[in-house]
Each structure stands twice: as C-alpha cells, then as structure tokens.
Structure of B30.2/SPRY domain-containing protein:
Amino acid sequence: MGEEFGFDKERFVNYNQDIFDCPICSCVARLPKDCSACGSVFCGPCVDSWLKKQQECINRCPKNSVIQGIQKSLKKIYDDLEIRCQFCTKPFKIAEIDKHEMNCQMPKCTNYDVCGNNLGTNEFEKQKVCDQACLLLSRIKQTKNKQDLYSCLKQYVKDKKPIIQISPYNFNIPAVQNQEYPVFKWDRQRMGTGITFSDGDTKIFLKEQAYMFRTALATYGFEKGIGYWEIEADEKTENELKIGVSTQREFNYNTAFCDFEFGWAYYGLAQLRHNSNATGPSFGRRFKKDGILGVCLNMNTGTLKFSLNGDLMGTAYTDEKLKHGPIYPAVSLLHCAGCKLITGKPLPTIFQI
C-alpha cells in the first residue's frame, strides 16, 4: 500500500501476532501511535486523518486520552520487525524499508554491482551508466582481445587529453583553459513525492495538503575546488525552503536532507539546519518568494557560504566533511513551495575575498 496506509502482513518475516495491527486500515502500523486509554496501536497517518474528522479515539475513549508515539517497550519490539522489500523481496528492518524501496525501484547503472549507483538524468543515461568511469568500464567489458582493449583506452585518453597550443617561443606549453562552470539540473530520480519539474528540469514545485518536507537533489556532485550556483525564488511559494548540500545521494527524499548528519542547509526563516529537523542558529536574512540566493561551496577550505540578492550573508558552515566529494546541491520544499536552479555562472567576487 501507499505511505498513507500500513504494511501488508504477508510481507513480514517475524510477525505473526496482531499487537501492531491498525484497526483503521487493518494493516501493520506504519509510524505507529497508541492511545493512552485503550492501548490500541494505529498507523500514524491513519489516526492523524481520523482525528481531524472525529477528534477522539476510534474506540470512543475519554476526551482526556492522548494518542502519541508508542511506548519505548513496544518501540523496541516494533523496531525488531523484519519486512520484505516489495521489489527485490529481501528482508530489512522496518525502519529501513521505506528508504530501501525508494532506492530499489530506481533504474540502476549497468555496473551497479561495482559502483552502487542509480542512473541519473545526465549525458550517460542513454548508455545505461551513471558516469564516465562506468562508461569506460562497460566498454572494457565488451573488448574481446588486447587490441580492442588498447584501442578503447587510447580513445579514452584522447578524449581526456588537455588542449595544447604552441607558444611564440616554440615551447609546447599546455594552454590555460577557461575555468569550467558546470551546468546541471534537478534529478528526476532523486526527489520527494509530489515534486513537479519544468523549464528543462531547472524548476521544481511542490503543492500538497501535507506539511512534510520533500527533498530534490541535483544531477551533479562536486568533487573538488569551488562550486557556485543560485536558487531563484518562486513567487507562488508559501513556505520557506531549506537550501544547501548533501554528501549522501541515496536516502528517504520524503524528509529534509539537513535532518541528517550528511546535510547542511540555510533555512529561509534566517536560520541554519544541520543534523536537526527542529533547531539551528540564526543566520542571514529571510528568503521565501522573491530574490536570488547564491550558494558557494569551497571544498578547498571546507566552507559553505550564502548570499542574498548579491549581498554576502557570510559563512554558514566550516566542516572537514565539506572537503570530500561528491557533494550534491539540494533543496527541501514544504507544502507549497518551489524554486529555479541557475548554474553555469562564474563565481561572484563577493565569494573570492
């Protein structure tokens, strides 16, 4: 069933009771809650929807009864439940199944057993590989003899060879190439439920009844040096965004990336969020439905800086983990929000100080 209902009982490896059966959907509870009066266990989404209409327990318990997360003793038993993936049928702990299934159903790179990556929406997608390294590996696998292998590697080296020009003094000196400003977009394979794409996948928007953060990742991961991109506000936005970077590519996109230790974000309420979904220090100015937010990731110094409408707001984070790639631009949207990703621009002078 969908995320608004519980889990089918037949999928469980070690559950043959009814202690966690939700009386509303008749499935094993998802995000379980229980009633302080009668002790019944419900799906969190099911009972939340019920309470919006009835404002009392389904068993007509006293008005002063409380429905909240299950007790620690039950939580320990619940967390030990194992459930099979509906795609690959492998068993996982119940707390891990949503994250696994989201990754499991995505198209895989031909060399998934080696790289562990899904296919992205980039220039390698048609070859069914995730990046240039896997493209080379696939070609090597197709070689039948040493001559084919040599030709394959020679072509690869040729494609990667830097441009050489002759100086007036007849010395062969590598030309100083212009700094590259990568152009990328939002990744359709790595986004939360309900996010829509437009304008060549550079614009995203979320509009739903639920108040739950949904994350979108970019197709490009920075490996070294300094990266810069911009987030342009959408005038239809009603709820502030969380904007920043993630060192993790695969996780539950129906959460905010900065809820975890692998995410660093500026929150449009003029706050920061890292490894927390509730608290963070004040930072900069507010940003919601107008303006352009500049993001500068300096992997040489391990810093993440932000600007608003061309004015530097300062260094939000300094962390050794921000020196090691790949690091992906990320945005989390809530309820009714959107933005446009702008890339391929040179680093503004305010970040070069």
About this structure: The first helix runs from residue 44 to 54. The radius of gyration is 25 Å.
